[in-house]
From TrEMBL, chain A:
Protein's recorded name: Rab7
GO cellular component, one term: phagocytic vesicle
Family: Belongs to the small GTPase superfamily. Rab family.
Record's keyword terms, sorted: GTP-binding, Lipoprotein, Nucleotide-binding, Prenylation
Localization in the cell: Late endosome membrane
Family matches, as NCBIfam families: small_GTP
Gene3D superfamilies: P-loop containing nucleotide triphosphate hydrolases
Lineage, broadest ranks: Eukaryota, Metazoa, Ecdysozoa, Arthropoda, Hexapoda
PROSITE patterns associated with the record: RAB, RAS, RHO
Superkingdom, natural source: Eukaryota
UniProtKB/TrEMBL annotation, chain B:
Main location: membrane
Species for this entry: Pieris macdunnoughi
Keywords: Membrane
Name this protein carries in UniProt: CNH domain-containing protein
Intracellular or extracellular location(s): Endomembrane system
């Protein structure tokens, strides 16, 4: 039943300002990269269709403002997300340190049903640069300590691992989606409201 | 019961009232006989009742019945339809003198008016009037400004004579006998909506609801119809027919249409240009409908019924308005009702009084709507509305509509402390108070509160960024966040405790309260997070220590403590030492990871202090620690290198240590390898501690580092008797580019003259010599000589060898030595020749340059300073031939 349905996955990208969130999204969707930095204001989304296990799913990727003063979206924006991508810059240890609070803040705002198993994906971006400061091992270790979050080392500039990372994001988001469907099955079957509405209308129309 | 209006009987007329109109406080009556009467509404101070006072009575206004009158108050103009012609009259004149007769309107049956006051950019106030007149089967449109009317070229042709009409912004709504129709004023398209009744023949009613909506009568209901924001051409396709019309204007974007008792929404309404929003039911088909925000009034048989639209509520009924058939809204809160011979007025009850009743009845929305319309000052209005909304929100909460209630609180920006108080369970001092929420209700309330708090904390977070960052403001924000997060914590503990850890890590909770709550719930693991983020490390670690031995605790074992200590960092070094102690004792190998894990904080711990601590308390871990520091972290500090050597040495020489032979060998090999490999220890210091009676090999390595090759070689040969080792040692020294030292010669001397060797002095002198070492080993010496002939100086070698050695034994060595000497000699000769050649070349060049001469006379000028060269001045000649003063050259 569910496999026939057209699937839209809402993916949210978070992370400190300047770690490359917009660039990653642009690389994945448009295959483009620009060296110029332009702060994102508010949020913006792009969509892309990907194939996961013979299913076509549409990814709606929300790029957000890393700088707090440009964040304008309410709590509602985080709700209903299927996957959250946390990005840090491998040359800036502070952006790695922030991951924890980005994750916690997201969980509180989005209030997913099962916060312990909500799919996150961590991307260590800018691996093309020489002045690396966060080792892959250290990042991996942290991801493991947080319920084995998948970790990818990416470069939006050189398109390293970007495709692979987003494929994983889609897959994990889809898994989350199907799980949510299982939860919803029960209320779906009852359709109390729908029936009530119909009956009312019929009554109105015929009791003249 | 709520009373919105009061009715007053005003007049028993001797004339037959045909039509009424009103403006400001004035009422106009048009009679069948053609009389026009004008009254003013006054409050009688004695009786506290409304009375009509006649101002004018114009008996000869018309010879025919007056069909319809309207007043354009701003222009002091009266429009009157009589004898089927529309005319305008001047209100200022005593007997309403005629201004103009609309000659095109002969045969008119009905007109509709819509006027708007607009203030132009020059500050003048203008009234713009839209007028529509139904003339037989045509609709004429007029546009009026300052009392002047102009007719549109376009007329609508209509299928029937209209009964009622109302003008909206975009549409003209017309009620025919059998249909309501919308006419688009700009595109001239028309759209049929539905008939005023499905069964019997009913007159249509229209009430304007807004500029874009009307209330249309349909049987026993009024239907709220709103213009949608789409192109009018689509209306036809999508609007579905229903059946008989009552139209009256409801507001500026909808009409009310009369309909059956049981009306519902028009099907397919969703895709239409005209949307049906609502239906209001009456007990009977209304004769007339009036919208007097926020109330809708319907004139039924001898009664007027007052209702509200949103939410639909029945408010009030006025009975015994005998044979009333006309209803006219004069202004807000003043409606005139008349029959053929009588006039009543409905006046609004004082808003404050109404509000009290409405609040008592919990009709908050109506109270708010009423308040919006009141004449109070904007501040007062806002305050009152807020207080009503507050009551509303509280009422929603009491009626268990928690989510709705919280949404209201968000809108109201209520102090969160007040909201939180609504759920007494969250109060720490709460002890079995009354009005406790239970089970599902409590869960729903908590979930709604969580949603509210999350929204609020987001708003606080974003608002502060933009606004002024004053200190008090920030403190205020911090306090609010503290309250919100502490409350969220309590909520999560009761609903979904998986959120507790992320929340605590965000570090806004109040420590004491959070601590107490978590204790109550036995959330030890979360308590640790709280302590950690609040910097209460001692408490955290003590709790971890206690819980470690509890068999059913979530914090059982040493892992959490280890993890915790690994993240403390250098500033809490003493805590780390204090609380790592038990782990190091019980789980030494894992415990050591507190100091060796690949974590920034761990790597940045002050290593000398850690070493000192381990030496004092856990000496068995010193070697693994040092090995990690040196081999994994590549620390080059001599302290660690020295210490590791000392530790190895002590381990080997410690008689008490129960090491197996295998272990001992392992350590020995590690020691030797390290001594050879490491270049960061201080051999002078290390060697002092080495014993004189053992570890000779190690000593040799150290001596080598010190450059005391003779001693080192002597140990290899004379004490260890290992000549091969000695040769290898020499090879190593040679390859290390130490070519000035004659190690091979030294070795040969030791081999040939063991007795004369005095290098093993001091304590080593008494060490027993290897048995082989006492006899001279000439053969080995000679073989070394032959093998390394190119590396050994022949003169020094010969001086070492005893005279007894036959020359033949040395022939190969001497030959090769000679060869080397010859090679050297020839190379030197070649070099000499080349250098000589170079020398002559340079000399030739020098002569060439010296041979050049220049003449300077008075005409020569320095190109830099443009001056002549004086008698004594020094000058410079460039390769290009330019000549400048010496000082000018310096300037460049």
């Amino acid at each position: 039943m569910s496999s026939r349905k057209k699937v839209l996955l809402k993916v949210i990208i978070l992370g400190d300002s300047g770690v490359g969130k917009t660039s990653l999204m642009n690389q994945f969707v448009n295959k483009k990269f620009s060296n110029q930095y332009k702060a994102t204001i508010g949020a913006d989304f792009l969509t892309k269709e990907v194939i996961v296990d013979d299913r076509i799913v549409t990814m709606q990727i929300w790029d957000t403002a890393g700088q707090e003063r440009f964040q304008s979206l309410g709590v509602a924006f985080y709700r209903g997300a299927d996957c959250c991508v946390l990005v840090f810059d491998v040359t800036a240890p502070n952006t790695f340190k922030s991951l924890e609070s980005w994750r916690d803040e997201f969980l509180i705002q989005a209030s997913p049903r099962d916060p312990d198993h909500f799919p996150f994906v961590i991307l260590g971006n800018k691996v093309d640069l020489d002045n690396r400061a966060v080792s892959a091992k250290r990042a991996q270790q942290w991801c493991q300590s947080k319920n084995d979050i998948p970790y990818f080392e990416t470069s939006a500039k050189e398109a390293v691992n970007v495709e692979l990372a987003f494929q994983t994001i889609a897959r994990n988001a889809l898994a989350q989606e199907t799980e949510a469907e299982l939860y919803n099955e029960f209320p779906d079957q009852i359709k109390l409201n729908a029936n009530d509405n119909n009956r009312n209308r019929d009554g109105d129309n015929c009791a003249c | 019961m709520h009373e919105a209006y009061e009715v007053t009987h005003l007049l028993n007329a001797s004339v037959q009232i045909e039509t009424i109109a009103a403006y400001d406080g004035n009422l106009l009556l048009g009679t069948r006989q053609g009389h026009l009467l004008m009254y003013s509404l006054l409050m009688n101070k004695d009786t506290q009742k409304y009375e009509l006072k006649m101002i004018r009575y114009c008996k000869n206004f018309s010879k025919k019945p007056i069909q319809q009158i309207e007043v354009i108050a701003e222009d002091k103009l009266l429009l009157c339809l009589t004898d089927n012609v529309l005319s305008s009259y001047d209100m200022n004149g005593l007997n309403f003198p005629l201004v103009k007769t609309f000659s095109d309107t002969k045969g008119a049956s009905l007109f509709a008016l819509d006027n708007k006051s607009a203030t132009s950019m020059t500050g003048e106030s203008n009234t713009i009037v839209h007028l529509c007149v139904a003339v037989r089967r045509k609709l004429q449109l007029y546009y009026g400004k300052n009392g002047e009317f102009k007719k549109h070229i376009f007329d609508f042709t209509i299928p029937d004579v209209p009964k009622v009409m109302a003008l909206g912004q975009q549409y003209l709504c017309v009620g025919f006998k059998g249909e309501y129709t919308f006419f688009d004023l700009s595109s001239h398209n028309s759209t049929d909506l539905f008939p005023p009744s499905s069964s019997k023949s009913l007159d249509p009613t229209i009430a304007k609801y807004s500029e874009t909506s009307f209330l249309l009568g349909r049987d026993n209901t009024s239907v709220l119809v709103e213009e949608a924001k789409k192109k009018s051409s689509e209306i036809k396709k999508t609007m579905k027919r229903i059946d008989d019309p009552t139209i009256s204007k409801y507001s500026e974007s909808s009409f009310l249409l009369g309909r059956d008792n049981t009306s519902g929404e028009v099907e397919d309404a969703k895709q239409e240009t005209v949307e049906i929003k609502k239906t209001i039911k009456w007990t009977d088909a209304p004769l007339a409908v009036v919208w007097d925000e926020p109330f809708i009034l319907g004139l039924l048989q001898d009664t007027v019924v007052v209702q509200t639209v949103e939410p639909p509520l029945f408010i009030q009924t006025f009975v015994e308005l005998n044979k009333a058939r006309l209803m006219y809204r004069c202004k807000r809160g003043l409606i005139f009702v008349s029959s053929v011979g009588q006039v009543w007025c409905l006046t609004s009850v004082d808003i404050t009084k109404q509000r009290k009743q409405l609040l008592k009845d919990k009709h908050f929305q109506i109270a708010i709507d009423l308040m919006k319309l009141s004449d109070s000052s904007p501040e007062e209005k806002k305050q009152t509305i807020d207080s009503i909304q507050m009551l509303h929100a509280l009422d929603l909460f009491d009626s268990k509509q928690y989510s709705q209630s919280m949404k209201e609180f968000i809108k109201l920006k209520t102090d969160p402390a007040e909201v939180i108080k609504l759920i007494p369970e969250l109060d720490n001092k709460f002890e079995g108070k009354e009005n406790v929420l239970k089970g599902k209700d409590l869960e729903n309330a908590l979930n709604a509160l969580i949603e509210y708090l999350v929204e609020l904390r987001f708003q606080i977070g974003t608002n502060t960024e933009g606004s002024s960052k004053s200190e008090s403001n920030q403190r205020n924000v911090a306090q609010q966040l503290e309250l919100i997060d502490t409350t969220l914590l309590k909520c999560y503990l009761q609903t979904n405790d998986a959120f507790v850890a992320p929340l605590l890590r965000l570090n806004n909770c109040r420590l004491e309260e959070a601590e107490k709550t978590l204790h109550q719930h036995g959330k030890h693991s979360e308590l640790i997070i709280l302590y950690q983020t609040k910097g209460q490390h001692t408490k955290a670690l003590q709790l971890l220590r206690e819980q470690a031995s509890q068999p059913d605790s979530s914090l059982k074992g040493y892992h959490r403590t280890k993890n915790y200590l690994q993240h403390l960092g250098a500033e809490h070094l003493n805590l780390i030492f204090k609380f790592s102690d038990w782990i190091l004792k019980e789980h030494p190998e894992e415990g050591l990871k507190i100091f060796t894990e690949d974590i920034v904080e761990v790597e940045n711990l002050p290593r000398p202090k850690v070493l000192d601590f381990l030496l004092r308390e856990h000496d068995t871990l010193v070697i693994p620690y040092l090995e990690h520091v040196i081999h994994t972290w590549n620390d080059t500090h001599d302290l660690f290198h020295d210490a590791l050597i000392n530790m190895y040495r002590e381990k080997i020489t410690d008689k008490k240590a129960n090491c197996t032979e295998e272990e001992l060998q392992h350590i020995k090999s590690k020691l030797v390898a390290f001594l050879e490999k490491s270049s960061h220890y201080t051999p002078e210091r290390v060697i002092l501690h080495f014993p004189n009676d053992t570890l000779f090999e190690e000593r040799a390595v150290i001596l080598g580092k010190l450059g005391r090759h003779e001693q080192a070689l002597a140990i290899y040969v004379q004490i260890l008797g290992d000549v091969d080792r000695a040769i290898r040692y020499c090879d190593n020294v040679w390859t290390r580019n130490d070519k000035t030292v004659d190690v091979y010669v030294t070795l040969m001397r030791i081999l040939v003259n063991p007795e004369q060797n005095n290098s093993l002095t001091g304590p080593l002198a008494t060490v027993p010599r290897h048995p082989k070492a006492s006899t001279p080993d000439l053969e080995t010496a000679l073989s070394i000589l032959e093998k390394h002939a190119d590396k050994i100086s022949p003169i020094k070698a010969l001086s070492v060898l005893p005279d007894s050695v036959p020359l033949a034994r040395l022939s190969s060595f001497l030959e090769s030595a000679l060869q080397t000497q010859l090679t050297m000699k020839r190379r030197t000769q070649v070099l000499k020749g080349l250098l000589y050649a170079e020398h002559t070349q340079v000399q030739e060049m020098k002569q060439f340059h010296e041979s050049k001469s220049i003449v300077i006379n008075d005409y020569n000028v320095c190109p830099v300073c443009k001056k002549r060269f004086g008698n004594q001045s020094a000058f410079v000649r460039y390769p290009s031939g330019d000549i400048v003063h010496y000082s000018c050259k310096l300037d460049k």
